[in-house]
Each structure stands twice: as structure tokens, then as C-alpha cells.
């Protein structure tokens, strides 16, 4: 299992900027590139024309902004630019995956088993909490009742003025049956039937040992988010959940566009749920707050492609 450590020494070179944006590495842009005398105004303007570094600069939209918000057209350091109030016709839900656990690091399948955060996971949770603390409109936090999600939510709540954290078991990870507690690399030999079911392309395939199908996970998670949205229309809400569950939410919001992004530990997504039950993805799998911490390159998050 490989870890990436960001904040590496970066030369103020436009080609290096573009290379990092193409491979999807978050770049500590503000602290490392803007102060450098070698990074001229001409080079900066040239970089903007390529548009491929726009996600790093957060120019078109701050991570917490909605589609009608006005934002300052400049690089954002630490997410200080604020969006306007949420429209009364929809709920803005900030979806966070829990921090890292030892089982994430070891590649062991968690599912409904209750594993707590490790030290790296707590560091990640503090980083995303610091990011969300700059959002004064958050009204409440919902969390899976599993320890790794609930502890992440509690860390966020403390940074956001001791907000209430409401546990909801419908935000749990997919139940993975006989695969839970073993590594995916061991599963092919020790649980071949469950392993085959897990790799199936059928959304209605149930995993032996009490596991859920993808359709069951989808129904549970999307129904839960709809209930939350209807209860908090016009508000901004944080939801802390799990890799597979979060991917199910993306499937509901973008049924014709499959997300290829890994769901990193403490990654941030933003969904708008309208009063007409329309779902819109505003941001997905963003980990810019982890520039100065550590996150997994290939953790197991409850589905075949989660971070």
C-alpha cells in the first residue's frame, strides 16, 4: 500500500504545474509558488490560459460555492473565499469520507465492522475540519454510526462551533458479507464465492454472508440523503460516510456519468438536492486540504475503485 506525501519541493515552472494537474496531485500552490520571485506575472497569466490548472486555483468556484454564487477571481489559499447563502429551493450537502484507519492502510475490508481512525486518519480529519471551519453556514452534521465516520464527524463538529452530530446507520458502508475482516488479496482463495460476487458487474448481486448488493446500498444511502435534504431545505449540511456509500450517492446525482475519481479519505464532495428531488454534483473527491498531510494512494473504500 503506497502513501503520497504532498508539499514536495516544487520549482515555479509552468510545465511542472501542468504535469501535477494532469496526474491529479494536489499542489500547495499558494505557499510554494506565488511567493517566488521566479514565478512572474507573465508566467502566471500563461498558466491560466491552459485552464488545466483551474481546479488547483479554485478560480471558477470556491469548493463550497453554488452555481449562482459570486466569488473573488483570485487564487484561494486555505478556502477563505465564501459562497453566498444557500438558495431556499435546495439543500447543499457537503459529503466527507471518514479518515484513514489501520485497516485502510493494511488493505483489509471493513464493511460494517467497526474500526476506529488511526493517527493519520485523525490528522486528516483535523485538516478537513479546519477547511470546513471557514464555512459559517453549516447547520448540522450527520454521520454513519461506525466509529471511523463518527470520530471524523466529531472532529469537524468541534472546529465548527460544537455543532450537533446526528448518527444515522443508513450512512454506513456497504455490508460486504464474508469478505469483511480479510484483505482483498486473500479473498480470492479464502472466500471465492464472496469474492466472485464482489467483482460481479450486476448491481443486484448480493455478497454471501449477509452482504448487500449495490442496488441495496444505493437505495439505503440515497433514501437517507433525501430525508436529510427535505429536513434541512435551504441549509448547508455536512454528511460523513464511507467510500462505497459516497459512490452510490454520485450514481444517483450523475446516473449517466460514472465517476472515475477515487474517494480518498476525508475527500470533499458537494451535492445540491432541490425541492423537486433533482440532484447536482458541484464538487467531487477534492483533497486540497491534505496538501500538508498524508493520504493513501490506494486504500480500500468499499467498492472496487474507492481511494
TrEMBL record:
Belongs to the phosphoglycerate mutase family. This is Phosphoglycerate mutase-like protein 4. SMART domains: PGAM. PROSITE patterns: PG_MUTASE. InterPro entries: His_Pase_superF_clade-1, His_PPase_superfam, PG/BPGM_mutase_AS, PGM_Phosphatase. It comes from Datura stramonium. The lineage of its organism: Eukaryota, Viridiplantae, Streptophyta, Embryophyta, Tracheophyta.
Amino acid at each position: 500500500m503506497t502513501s503520497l506525501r504532498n508539499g514536495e519541493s516544487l520549482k515555479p515552472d509552468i510545465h511542472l504545474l501542468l504535469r501535477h494537474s494532469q496526474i491529479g496531485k494536489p499542489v500547495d500552490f499558494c505557499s510554494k509558488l506565488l511567493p517566488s520571485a521566479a514565478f512572474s506575472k507573465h508566467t502566471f497569466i500563461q498558466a491560466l490560459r491552459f485552464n488545466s490548472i483551474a481546479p488547483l486555483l479554485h478560480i471558477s468556484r470556491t469548493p463550497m460555492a453554488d452555481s449562482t454564487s459570486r466569488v473573488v477571481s483570485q487564487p484561494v489559499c486555505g478556502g477563505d473565499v465564501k459562497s453566498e447563502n444557500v438558495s431556499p429551493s435546495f439543500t447543499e450537502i457537503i459529503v466527507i469520507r471518514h479518515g484513514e484507519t489501520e485497516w485502510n492502510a493494511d488493505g483489509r475490508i471493513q464493511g460494517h465492522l467497526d474500526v476506529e481512525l488511526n493517527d493519520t486518519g485523525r490528522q486528516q480529519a483535523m485538516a478537513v475540519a479546519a477547511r470546513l471551519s471557514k464555512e459559517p453556514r453549516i447547520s448540522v452534521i450527520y454521520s454513519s454510526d461506525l466509529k471511523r465516520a463518527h470520530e471524523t464527524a466529531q472532529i469537524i463538529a468541534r472546529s465548527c462551533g460544537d455543532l450537533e452530530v446526528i448518527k444515522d446507520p443508513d450512512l454506513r458502508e456497504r455490508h460486504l458479507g464474508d469478505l469483511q475482516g480479510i484483505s482483498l488479496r486473500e479473498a480470492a482463495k479464502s472466500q471465492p464465492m464472496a469474492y466472485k460476487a464482489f467483482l460481479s458487474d450486476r448491481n443486484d448481486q448480493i455478497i454471501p454472508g449477509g452482504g448487500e448488493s449495490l442496488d441495496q446500498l444505493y437505495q439505503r444511502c440515497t433514501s437517507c440523503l433525501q430525508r436529510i435534504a427535505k429536513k434541512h431545505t435551504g441549509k448547508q449540511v455536512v454528511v460523513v460516510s464511507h467510500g462505497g456509500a459516497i459512490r452510490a450517492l454520485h450514481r444517483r446525482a450523475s446516473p449517466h456519468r460514472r465517476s472515475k475519481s477515487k474517494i480518498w479519505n476525508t475527500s470533499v464532495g458537494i451535492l445540491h438536492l432541490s425541492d423537486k428531488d433533482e440532484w447536482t454534483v458541484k464538487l467531487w473527491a477534492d483533497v486540497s486540504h491534505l496538501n500538508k498531510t498524508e493520504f493513501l494512494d490506494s486504500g480500500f473504500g468499499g467498492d472496487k475503485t474507492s481511494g
